[in-house]
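Consider this:
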Amino acid sequence: MIKWTERRTQRVETPRLSTRGERQSTTKVDISGFVPELLTYLGQAAYFELGMFENIARATSIAPDLAAKEGLSAAAGRALAKHQGLVAEIRRRGGEPSEVMAPFAPRLDAFRHQTTGADWNELLLSCYLAGGLLDDFFIRLSDGLPGDVGPRVAHLLGQDAGTDVLITHLKAAIRSDAALGSHLALWGRRLVGDTLLVARSALPMDGHTSDQSRIEPVFTEIIAAHTRRMDGLGLTA
């Protein structure tokens, strides 16, 4: 069983951001050999979604006006619904959710602490970018889950996350302050590095070059989606 709390002796390399003009591979990668055991996967994903709920709830609590609070509360509810759906999958397999999630709490709590940000705008960007990237990651990993659980989990995680409200407020803030845009672009680049390290550490790989090269296209897909999110905000990835 692979635990995010384990310290690895080998150096973990973050995949490089590719240029927008670079041709991406369209070959579907078989990731069945990189997927953790089912309850391990579900525990990690469930605790991540719980953390997303807590982050968006915190953004709601410090939002500057009632309109923002209302929109963010809906997004928080959707993150909580994803968490509850994953918890239901854990229970369906006879697991106790708190016990299944517990091994991953220290690692993910530390990650959330590192990526919360210093203010409301940084927190919103973290919810949007880190949340979107890890949702993409868990959806991609679900391809390798056994039986019919993979499609169910992919459908659950792929549902509308209510992130339009995050985009709306971030775009408004960036339009009103050009310096903020440059600052958030730097913050976004830091977020992708930290988030990819968390994702990479969840994979049962021993650091062999062959494993790294086989899984690299998966991270290329995920980074491309991150770059599109940054572009959509007018930020440079």
